[in-house]
Amino acid sequence: MKAIIYQEYGSTENLKLQEINQPEPKADEVLIKVLAASVNQADRHLLSGTPFPVRFTTGLFRPKFQTLGADVSGVIKSIGKNISQFKVGDEVYGDLSGIGFGGFAEYAVAKEEALAIKPKNLSFGETAAMPMASVTALQGLRDLGEIQKGDEVLINGASGGVGGFAVQIAKAYGTRVTAVCSGRNEDLAKIQGADEVIDYSLRDFTKEDRKFDLILDGPVNHSLSEIERVLKGNGRYVAFGFSMEALLLGSWKSFRTGKKFETLLAKAKQADLKLMANLADEGKIKPYIQQSFTLDEVPQALDLLINGKVSGKLAITI
Ligand SMILES: NC(=O)c1ccc[n+]([C@@H]2O[C@H](COP(=O)([O-])OP(=O)(O)OC[C@H]3O[C@@H](n4cnc5c(N)ncnc54)[C@H](OP(=O)(O)O)[C@@H]3O)[C@@H](O)[C@H]2O)c1
């Protein structure tokens, strides 16, 4: 089968389209004919081996997993003997990050827990844009953010992969959403349901008089003290982008202020994938795909993501 392979940490120049052996599913795995994938910032971190701590799981000097790609959608081709939830021919989608990635390939293996039946209303490309980004948004808003109907929610980084889903999920919970993104993405944020859009090049949300019940933050470009200023008394702040300050000082700041400062590490869960598929089928969330690429164009797609030129998601059709 064809797959995108890399053997050294570095840039997208290290990614090569090669012929490799098709993976064999173990007893607790299924084999998927991958019809679409999508790129995530996680692929960029695995490709470059940065920040350095990622290498403790992905290989200290050389990448342990040679095919990137967490998000996939496709059709089940064969199943291991312990598989009970899926059968051959099922159309599924899921997140392979827990099993060593491998989505930028014609076939991939996955465990049941990381898969769900694909939403019926979406194409394979749209579906492949959902797993990692939508589940991160959901877990940030619901689990750490304790989102409630009627909340004033602010999404910083609202036009990105995670942020675009966060706006839609927060609206599905019946909240009022303020989206922070660049002016070029204002229309997209409104289409996704934002009640108000703040162009970060014109206004700094931490300097405004308004206060929020919940702030979900991808860019993490403000200090915790600046964030605290615009959180209500029982407000919750969830950083899903990397924040050393939130990691080291979040608990202390929460204890001192009575507000909640959290850092999210999302994890693929079947129940959450099912919930996202239901929301998609109900028309409450729809991925925005800026552009689609073919398997051999994965390096171009990743370059676009690395250069910060993506609104919504990029799909790979295989
Ligand atoms: N914790 C977890 O489990 C987890 C899971 C997934 C992702 N992540 C991390 O979360 C971060 C975001 O991921 P993503 O997939 O959403 O990335 P993405 O698709 O690249 O989106 C980033 C967005 O941030 C916006 N942005 C850039 N500068 C900004 C600023 N100064 N103020 C407000 N928004 C700004 C950009 O919007 P404009 O184009 O409009 O400027 C862009 O759309 C990454 O660091 C990723 O590694 C963490």
UniProtKB/TrEMBL annotation:
- Judging by the UniProt lineage, the source's domain of life is Bacteria
Q: Which CDD domains match?
A: MDR1 (cd08267)
Q: Which Pfam families match?
A: ADH_N, ADH_zinc_N_2
Q: Which InterPro entries match?
A: ADH-like_N, Chloroplast_QOR, ER, GroES-like_sf, NAD(P)-bd_dom_sf, Quin_OxRdtase/zeta-crystal_CS
Q: Which GO terms describe its molecular function?
A: oxidoreductase activity; zinc ion binding
Q: What sequence ranges are listed for the domain Enoyl reductase (ER)?
A: 10-316
**What is the name of the protein in this document?**
NADPH:quinone reductase-like Zn-dependent oxidoreductase
Please give the organism. Algoriphagus iocasae
